[in-house]
Each structure stands twice: as C-alpha cells, then as structure tokens.
Amino acid sequence: MYRILLSLFVSAFITLSLGSGLGHAQESQWNVSLVEVQDRSATTPVTLDVHQENWTPNPQNFALEIDNIDVSALVEIEETKISYRPAEPLNAGLHAVRIYEITSEGDYVERGFWQFVVNHTENGAVAGNGEAGESGSGTHVEASMDNNIEISQRLFDKNITASVSDDTSISGAGSGNLNISNGNWSLTASGNYFIESEESISVTGNEFDLGEYSINLQYSGTTISSGATLGHQDIGVESLAMSSFNRRGLSVNVGGADDRWKVTGFSLSSDSLAGGDDFTGQKEDSGFVAGGAVMGRPIWDEDAKIELTGLYFTSQGGELDFGSSGGLVTDTAPKGEGAAIIADSYWMQDRIRVRGEYAYSNMDLDGDESLGKDGADANAVDLSYVAIQDDGQSETPVSLTVGGRWEKVDTFYYSLANQGLAVDRNAFSAFANMYVGAFSLNAYAGYETNNTADLQDVATDEVASAGFDGSYTFTIERESPEDRAWLGTPFFGFGASLFDADRKDTPTGFLGDGTNNTTLNYYINFGSSYERWNWQVGYNRREFDDDTNVSSDTADETIDLSAYWTVSDSLNLSAGTSLNHFAQKADGERSYNVSGNLGVQATLIPDTLTTNLSYNMNLSSGSGDSPDKHILSGEMEWTFISAEVNKPGVALAFRGAMEKDDGNSDNSLDDTKYEGFLVLRIKAPVAY
Amino acid sequence: MKASWSCVLRRRLHIKAMITFIRNLIIALFAGLSVIGIAKADVTFVTPIPSKLTVSPTGGTVNVTWRVVHVITAGGTAATQSPSYTILINGNPVQTVNKVLSRTTTVAGGVPETLTFSEVIPISVNIAKQIATSGNNARIERVFNDGIGATGTGAPFVIAGGGASGALSVNRIDLSFENGGKTSVIGQNAEIRAVAEVSFRSKGLLQAEWRLVDSASIRGGRFERLLSRVRVQLSSAGTGKTRIVSPNLPTGTTGLHEIKLVIVDPETRFEEPVLRYYVNPTATPSLARVAPLEAFSPVAGVPFSSATLFDWHPVPGAAAYQVELFNLPGGTNPQSSLNAAPLIVGPTDTDAQLVIGKIVPGDQTSATFADFSEGHLKHGFTYLWRIRAISSSGTVVGQSDFRKIHYP
Predict the structure, then answer these.
(1) Which positions ≥6 away from A614 have C-beta within 8 Å?
(2) Searching chain B, which residue's CA lies closest to the CA of residue A214?
(3) Section A224-249 average pLDDT
(4) Calpha distance A629→A621 (Å, rounded)
(5) Residue A154 — pLDDT band, cuts 50, 70, 90?
(6) Nearest neighbour of A329 by CB, restricted to B59, B272, B276
(7) Could you tell me how many helices (H) and strands (E) chain A has, helices first?
(8) Are B263 and A444 in contact (CB under 8 A)?
(9) Region A552-557: what's the mean pLDDT?
(10) Are the beta carbons of A177 and B349 separated by less than 8 Å?
C-alpha cells in the first residue's frame, strides 16, 4: 500500500516538476529567428526577426552577442527587426549569435542561439567550412609603418661624464606590418628597426639595424594547410626538450586543414638574435637547432582528444646570445641531439587531462669532445581533473580542479632549445585550483630530490614544499552609482609558501656540508579601484632558517603602496613607495631601504603642448649603507605639425634629468649632476 | 820535503776553509740582520670562506673569499698577491688558471693585517663531472705571497652536487620582454614589462634590483633609476629556475630606454644582460593607420569584474571601439591549448584566441562588460586585454598594447 502511495507521490512530484518546468520554458521562450542570407559576405548585416507579441523595440530590453562580442551598442532596431552591421568585416567561416533578454531585475537570460556562415571575405575569397574552396581573384594589400627619428643636442650639463662622445646625436626606431592576401594565400610580415648614432648605446651594436622580424607565407586550402616562416618564430612545441624557444630561423610546415595533423621542419639559431648581421639566423656563430616535429590527432572530438607529437633535432651552441648571460662553463659550445615524444589527451569533455612526455638529449656538454656525448633522459607525466565544473548557470559559480605532475630530469640532461630547464631533479607535485564566486584559491605541494644520475659520491637532498595563493573581489550591491562610492571595488590577495630542505642520503666519506633549512614566504595585499583611480597596498615577508648553521638565518620584509589617478583626459598622476627591511641574524646586519616614485603627465594645450615629469628616490641605511639617490627627469614637447598617415609631423622638446646623491654622514659622496637636451622629433607614419 | 809541502798544502786548505767560513758567516750575519732587523714578513693565515664550496655536477660557479693575514715586523709596504689558482682532484692538479689577486698595503710593524679577496671561480662542466665521478674530493688552492718571500696557502673543498646545501649561485639569466621579444618599439604610455628567467642552484636569498636608464640621461649621465627591489627566497634540490617580472617599465617619455636586472647577491661570474626599448611618440590625435591607442584603465593589478571600467583616449576617425579579452598563451590557463607554446604573443603580433569582447560607438571612450560576457570567463584565470579603434570602413585605426588582467 505504502509503495502505491509512494509511487503516486513520486509521479505527482515529477509531473508537477515537469509541468512547471515546461510552463516556465514556454513562458520564457522568445519567438526570434535569424534572417537567413544566402552567400553571406563579411559585412552583411546580421538580422533577427522578433515575432514576440507585445515586444517593444527597446535596446534596454535585450543584448546581442556575436562570437562572444557584445554588439548591443551598435544594434539598429526597426519595428520587429534587430540588425547589426559588422563594424569590422567578419572572417570567413562559422559564427555564433546569441540574444539575451534583460529582465526587469537586470538579469540576462539567453533567449536564442544561432550559427551562420560567412562565405565571402571582402576580397572575394570563399570560406572553406568543409566545402570546396576557390581562390578569389583580388589581391588585398595592407601595409603600415611607424617611423620616428629624433635629433638631440646637448644644451648644458654639470658633473656629467657623458656616455656618448658627441653633443649631437640621432636616434630613432620604427615598426612595420605588411599583409598581402589573395584567395587561399596570405603573406604577413612584421618587424622593427633602430637608429642610433652612438654605437655604445645602440640596441644591437650597429648604428642602423634591424631589430626582430618575422615573415610568414601561409596557404589555407580545403584539405591542406601549409606555411613557411622566416625570422623570429616559435614552432609551437612545448616540451622538456623545447620550451618558449623563440628564435630566428626558417621553418616550413604542412598539415591538414582540420588541424588533425601537422609536419614541421625547422632550422633555428640556438642563440637569441637581434640585428641584421645574421639575417636568416643560419650563420655558424649563431649556433643552430635544426630538425622536425610531427603532430597527429588520431581522436579529436568533444568527449575525447588525443594529440601525439614527436620532435627531433640536432644542435650546436653559438657564440652570442642576445639578452642572455651565463650558462654552461665551457670553452666551446655544447653540441648534440635532442628528441621528445609527447602524448597529450583530454577526456570527458576536457574534464580529465593526461599528458606524458619522454625527452632525450645526447650532448657533448663541453663541445670539445673531451667528455664525449652524454645520453640523458627527462620524463614528465601530468594528470588533472576538473572535479567540479562551473556550468555557467549557477548564481554563485563554483569550480575545482585537482592535478599532479611527476618530472624526472637527469643530472646531465641538457637541451639548447630549453637552456634554462631545471635539471637534476626528481619531483612530484600536486595542485588544487578552486573558486567560489569571486573567491579563488590555488594550493600546491611538492617533493623533489636531486642526484637523478645516482652518482655514488654525490649527496642526495630532498626538498618538500607547500603553498597557496588566493584572492577575493568584493561585490557591492549599489542602489545607485553614488551609493558607498567611496568603497570602490575592493579586492585582496594573499599567499604563503614553505620549503623544507633536508639531507636524504649522505655517501660515505662525503666532505660537504649537511642540509637542513627552511624557507617561508607569505604576503597579503589589498586595494580598491574606482572609476578614475585605484590604490593598492601589499606586505611581503621572507624568512630563512638554516639549522646546520652553515649560512646565516635571514628575514626580509617589504611594504608596497601605490596609487594611480586619471584626474582628467589631460592629467594623470601616479605614485608609489616601497619600504624594505632586511636582517641577517648571524652577524646582526640590518639594512633599511625606502624607494619611491612620482609621475605626472599632462596635456597643457590639447594636441600641442604636453609634459611629463618623473621623480624617483632611493634611500638606504644600516649595514652596507649607500648614498641616498634622487633622480628627476622630464620632458616638455611642443608639436608644430601633428603627424597623420603619410604626412610627417614635427615636434620640438626640451628634455632634462638630474641626479642628486646624498652621502649623509660622508659629505665626500654628495654629488649633483644634471643635463639638458633640445630634441627635434620627426614622426612619419605611412600606410597603404 | 814532501812532508813540508803537504803541511803547507793542508795549512793553506785550512786557511781557505776558514776564509770561506768567515765569509759565509758574514753573509749569514748580514742576511740575518736584514731579515731580523730590517724587515721580516710572514703570511700567517690564508682562510677560504666558506671552507666548503658546492657546485652542480654540470658545472657552474663558486664564490669564495680569501682572508689573508700577514705581519711585517718592521712595518712597511708590501704587495700581497696570488698569481693563480689550481683545482686539484684527489690531490692531483687538473687545472691551473692564471688570475692575479693583488693588493698593496702599508702597515705598521708587528701589527697583523687582514686582507680579503673575493672572487667568482667558474667550474667547467668537464671539471665538475670529474669531481662528481671521482670520489667528490677536490680543492681549489691559492698561494699568497707578500712579495718579501713569505707565502701562505688556502684550499677550500669543492663538492659536486650537494643539492640544497652550499650557497646560492646564479648560473644564467635570460632577459626578455613579456611578449618574448628581445627588442621593442612601443607606443608612448603603452604597457611593457621585462622578464628575467634566472637559473640557480641550492638555496638562499636572491637580492636583485630592476634598474632603468631613461631617454633623458641615456646619452649623458646614465642615471640608473631603481624601479624595484627584488628579494626572493629560493630553494631547490637540484637546479632551479625562477621567473622575475619587472614592474611596468616607464613609457611616458619617448626615446631610447635601457633595462637590466642587477644581481646584488650572490655575485655572478657574468655581466647582467641589458635590453633596450624605444618609446615612440603617442597616438595623440591619431598618428598612424594602426596607431597606438592609449588605455588608462584598468591598471595592472586591478582584477576583472563586470564593474571594471575600461577607459581610453579617443582616436580620431574611430567609428567604434572594441574591448577584447583573450586567452593567455598556453600553459598558464590549464586548458587553453594542448602543446601550444606559452609564447603566442610574439614580439610583433598575436594569435591569441578571443574570449569576450564588447563594441561601443566611436563617441564613447569607456566601457564595462555585461554579466553575460563575464559568464564566458573562467574564474582564477588570467587574460590578455586590448582595445581597438575601428573606422567607418571597418579598418583598424588604433590599437592598444596587450595587458594582463586576472579574473578572480
């Protein structure tokens, strides 16, 4: 009997639930449709027909979104039609439209979603979109270059030992872009250059020189996509063998138009390059990393994605590395081979990620073959899981992602395509990232040991670490903009980390020191932003304790305060200060530092007279006291002719700087230096 | 007769020996006087600090301070020096490097004087590997001589490996701008930061300073402005790498600027790399077809919310402005891409994926995002944002640089 009653109760409940749900759905459903357009071009208006009874054409009632871009502000309403003419031509291909109802409570409720295809770009190219592509007949060319040069004349100076010999010098720089497209082909080029009459302060060491550049030729067919790149580039493989490897060189690639496979061949310089001395990056002095990469995606759908990548290269170090210093201590450059196999995958609609990697290096580290080549491995496995997924519907969004990583890099592993890689470590780490509304928290823990090569005379240490970072932004419900406006939008952040290092294994007869130390860092910051200004304050403390007493315990703390105020469109103010205290406990050394800056930027006569001033101070005391330093620099510019496209502009500026040193108790260190320059500035933007 | 000749000969030999003895005695007396009475010197101690140095099995540097104590009994001037150091493995010299440490001092008689010499000694990968695989018993030996004949020897141990013991050492600095480039031509008031990837070994406090020389003094006094002081506690079992990001670099004044990260402690064997960037005059009344667009807010550090105001200078010719948020390059946002390199914002452009945007008419110079746009973002992620000005013909006439914003 009770089962029958229960069944009836459940049935009634389900029926009521469904009924009310359907009723709600019917009640909330808008009768809106996308006006279909055959052979849609990039600028064809996107039009929706609203057939809703009693619908009043009021822009306050709805919002329109195209490709996640809120275009509501440019929508035209005509009786029952909502129309948007793309302000910028849409790319060929698939696009998404969403319309939202703005309820009387101010909430946004999605009322419709459509997709449409743009077949023709402005130059007549036909989108692929799975259909047979054709080449358009027109060629679209767009080029622009911003050129600037200034001639400066020293007017006066005091106590200055000039870093350049001539009182008159010329300096300048520019950057340019070129885009040419014709049907399925496109060529893009970009780069910058520098002019500096004084070689000693030039960017690359030459008076007139190229900086960095990239030229890319791309073919996008219906089944095949291919390209070739000359100049600075990153071939896009991220692994232990190659990471953030942005170098000058040449690469070619070919792949499927559906991105399911790609083969890349490359020959890049091993060193960072700037300047035109080695334009292609293929000179011997620049070193090389040359090889190929193959990527395939055997499974790539919504539920499961698998990507396999293979990488192999030969390499040799160069003699110059622009912007880098240090590295291996060798007389000659290291050389050898590197390789990696990477398997990456997403499962359960991207909620689970599993990634594994094996990298190998076979390098002659000192480059002179006295050591011979060392084969060494590096392995990594990553696992992450989105335990709680934000569905985007909850009033308070909640998400939790957990994961871990194992990484073992051999003591003698070395790759010229990832020179800064931390080696000689066997590390396990775990993380959890979560947010609840505007509160976010990231926590992590790790454990690592060294001596991965198992050298019997080398001690093995272990470092355990743990930490977290979090932030929260307050949401203040306001009845009007003036309501508690003084609060602005407050936010705060916090975090802490702990590292504990100990000796794990000491070989017999080991002569080195023991290991037993602890490092603790923690910080907190908070601030608030307002319509025209914001402020932030932060506190950071770092402590180090060495229980072996081999090195001194230390404590270091810093307080930062900064503010930025856009007073008006013609006046900006910025200010910041930092107080630092450092103590070395063993010998009682203490130092105190206060630094500060103040910036003013103002337009005195619109489009004609502008000025900016910058003041910087650095005061220190305690152990290792150094003279206090005050630096003031600024510029006032008068624009005679405003530059416009293809029409040069001319401006004259006075520029000056002053440095005052104060030795405090030691007057011999007191010093005041200043200098001033007259600067003639020519700006020449060109575009086609 | 024979006997007398032999007696004479013996007598002469005796006399000759006696003369030699007396002559030697006189020389010895003079020598003794010169040593005892005129100037007697003694290098009494040579103490290396620390007494044990550690280095990675793949080489690196060790920082050593030699504390030399010497005495000149009668006082005077002495040049204390060491012409070279020798690395010994298991007692056998494997490398001698000529590198003179020298100091000339005048001291009072009989008063011990302490001299300190600090140096950074590179240990090659070859030597380090030999140390690591040959019993881990090596020393660096320096012989100090005060120029008067006295010497002293110091020889700290060099240990390969040792993980988190030993002093912190910095092996490499790779400096770049935040977009991965090593050069930059940037618009006035645009946002740019430098990034230093610092490779290190062991543990300790890294003390560094971001220093900038701006265009007002770069061709004169080169006034180094302290942008920020960096204090980072580092710890690693093997080698480690840390990423140090500069504060926003000044771009208010046009012209050439120079930025570097100066490592204050520990001492390095190399000069810090330097990058230079050029600030072009701003887009005040629109300079170029794709002119730099100056955005005021939000400034760095302000988190994203639907209340966040995006504010910018007007660009003549703009019929509309589009505020755009992009996914940060792969890696930082966990699922933004597989295997994509973290560098997608190249030195000159970007292929970043647009996440949300908002377009407003050209007479508007500020915007906030609606709640439904915010719904497309993921909490805890960092995004890139920029603003573009679009003309009535649909071309982009102004564009701000990329900046980062965090969505808490």
Answers:
(1) A597, A598, A599, A600, A631, A632, A633, A634, B214, B250, B252, B253
(2) B348
(3) 91
(4) 12
(5) very high
(6) B59
(7) 1, 35
(8) no
(9) 89
(10) yes
Q: DSSP labels for A582-613?
A: EEETTTTEEEEEEEEEEEEEEEEETTTEEEEE
**Three-class secondary structure assignment of A8-47:** HHHHHHHHHHHHHHHHHHHHHCCCEEECCCCCCECCCCEE
Interface confidence: ipTM more than 0.85: no
Nearest to A328 among B58, B280, B299 (CB): B58
Q: Phi/psi of residue B350, each to 5°? A: -140, 150
Q: Residues A37-90: pLDDT tens digits? A: 877 777 888 999 887 776 677 778 889 999 899 999 999 988 788 899 888 877
Give A46 to chain B, closest Cα distance, Å.
Answer: 15
Q: Cβ contact (<8 Å) for A70 and B298?
A: no
- Percentage of chain B exceeding pLDDT 90: 25
Q: Which of B176, B322, B372 has the CB atom closest to A108's CB atom? A: B372
Quote the CA–CA distance of A337 and A361 in Å, as a whole number. Answer: 6
Which positions 42-61 of B are in contact with A (Cβ < 8 Å)? 50, 52, 54, 56-61
Instruction: Using DSSP, state whether A365 is helix, strand or coil.
Output: coil
Residue A458: pLDDT above 80? yes
Closest approach of chain A CAs to the CA of B372, in angstroms? Answer: 6
Ordered DSSP codes for B34-86: IIIII--EEEEEEEEESSEEEE-TT-EEEEEEEEEEEEETT-EEEEEEEEEEE
The pTM assigned to this predicted structure is 0.77
Q: What is the pLDDT of residue B351?
A: 45
B-interface mutation test, from A232, A412, A424, most B Cβ less than 10 A away: A424
Q: Could you tell me if B190 lies within 8 Å of chain A, comparing CB atoms?
A: no
Closest among B208, B199, B202, B274 to B242, alpha carbons compared: B199
pLDDT (average), residues A279-296:
95
Asked if B56 and A73 come within 8 Å (Cβ–Cβ), the reply is: no
In this predicted model, what pLDDT tens digit does every residue of A646-680 receive, in sequence order?
889 999 999 999 999 988 777 777 889 999 999 99
| Cβ–Cβ < 8 Å for A249, A280 | yes
DSSP state at residue A647: B
Nearest residue to A608 via CA among A640, A636, A635: A640
Q: Which residues of A259-280 are buried (b: 16+ CB within 10 A; e: fewer)?
A: eeebebbbbbbbbbbbbeebee
Q: Does B63 touch chain A (CB under 8 A)?
A: no
The pLDDT tens digits for A85-124 are 888 877 767 788 999 988 888 888 888 888 888 765 444 3
Average pLDDT over residues A416-424: 92
